[in-house]
Amino acid sequence: MLGKLACFAIGAVAGVLITAAIAHYILASGYKYAEMDWNEDGQTTLGEMLHGAAEVGVENVDVNGRTCKRFFEYKDGRGIKVLCDGKVMTFNPGDPLYE
Amino acid sequence: MGQSIDSIRQTVDTTGKMPGEDEALAHFKAPSHRPQPAALSTNAAAILGGMERARKTKPEIVATLAQAETGGAADQMPVAEIPVASRPARQIDQNPPTTLPPALMRGPLPPKKPSAPIDAPRRAELLVFQPVGDGRSSLGHVAIEINGLLYSWTPSGLHLTTKEEYLGENRFRDATGYPLRLTDDETDRLESYVLKYANTAKYNPITANCTDMVEQGLESLGYSVGLTALPAQLQKALIANQLASEDRSIYYPTDPSRKSPPATMPWSVMSGPK
């Protein structure tokens, strides 16, 4: 009985620590929850959050005189999306913001 | 009539000349655990050396092993009834596995010094990008410009553009260019190899990553680059081979206004910029 309790306690502590580490890693990326919805389907999954923390960069760009955020993939620099005043701008392949 | 596995084993053990076949025969000890043909195929290259020797001297054993490779019941097969010469083509995959780097397949090449004059114009330039982020780009990246075109091997295939455009696309990470000391002929052959590689290879982060395309291209020219899984390793190997030098390198810094968070994972330190 005591052994089971000890195993449960160790598992629970390990789970909490791992969850805290993942949460810290994601929060340290600096991205907002909604920003990390990379496929714009209205839901931000854990996978999108981890992907954002590990493989997505952000830069400020000027769009028609406004300062916007451009998110891009580290692997090739391709744009994922551009946020201007909290709204997502659409752009197509070939657009300088995309490339 | 039939030749049992035990008798095959006895024959092999008494000759003691076929180490590769010993490995294959180990699978036949317990027929219930015999690997499927696909699994055994991965061992085909390992046993081919022994198979070739055995084919000349002991055709009956080869016939049995070939039948076993196809999933046949080797321990019940009447091998002696099947003339080896009349058998259909062997089913064993004679091609070596393509997933292993060439340096693993055939060992290191003998050293080869560049034959191009040190001051000759250089038409190939290796671009080594610094690691960024914590994911797949945290090991850095390599691309190569040959004859005015830039070739970058990526998970989505070959990215072909110009150096200026590519540096613009990658303005979030610093790059260092290393003009390669190759003759014109070598440069053209390297370009042909890169194009052929892009048409035949499939990206793999371990065995066919951005570094492998350049590494294997240089090895096809006879230069011993060794096993270079990381961009930084390739960079060091090129300098060690005198194919590139630090004093001729070109630094392409990022736009200072652009944020370029450095990679933070422990493995990134190994391949990070100096």
Explain this structure to me?
The complex is a heterodimer of chains A (99) and B (274). By secondary structure, chain A is α+β, with helices and mostly antiparallel strands. Helices cover 37% and strands 25% of the residues of chain A. Chain A has helices at residues 2-28, 46-55, and strands at 56-63, 66-73, 79-84, 87-89. In chain A, helix 1 packs across helix 2. Chain A starts with a helix and ends in a 10-residue tail after the last strand. The relative contact order of chain A is 0.11. Chain B has helices at 5-15, 19-26, 37-41, 44-57, 59-69, 102-106, 163-169, 184-200, 210-220, 231-240, 266-271; strands at residues 124-129, 141-146, 149-154, 157-161, 175-179, 250-252. The longest helix of chain B is centred in the C-terminal third of the chain and has 17 residues, at 184-200. Chain B contains 11 helices and 6 strands. In chain B, helix 2 (19-26) crosses helix 4 and helix 4 (44-57) packs antiparallel against helix 5. Chain B has a 6-stranded antiparallel beta sheet with strand order 4-3-2-1-5-6, sandwiched between helices. Chain B is an alpha+beta fold and 274 residues long. The interface between A and B is medium-sized, with 16 and 23 residues.
Shape of chain A: elongated
Shape, per Cα inertia axes of chain B: globular
Number of helices of chain A: 2
- SS field, number of helical segments of chain B: 11
Helices and strands of chain B, in N-to-C order? HHHHHHEEEEHEHHHEH
Strand percentage of chain A, roughly?
25-35%
Mean pLDDT score of chain A: 86
Specify Rg of chain B, calculated over alpha carbons.
Answer: 25 Å
Query: Unreliable stretches of chain A, pLDDT < 50, 5 or more residues?
Result: none
Strand content of chain B: 5-15%
Give the largest interface pair and sizes. Answer: A-B, 16 and 23 residues
Sequence of strands across the biggest β-sheet of chain B: 4-3-2-1-5-6
Mean pLDDT of chain B: 71
What is the ordering of alpha helices and beta strands of chain A?
Answer: HHEEEE
Q: Helical content of chain A, roughly?
A: 25-40%
Distance between the termini of chain B: 70 Å
Extract low-pLDDT stretches of chain B.
Answer: 27-51, 68-94
How many individual β-strands of chain B? 6
Alpha-carbon Rg of chain A, integer? 19 Å
Give the termini distance of chain A in whole angstroms.
61 Å
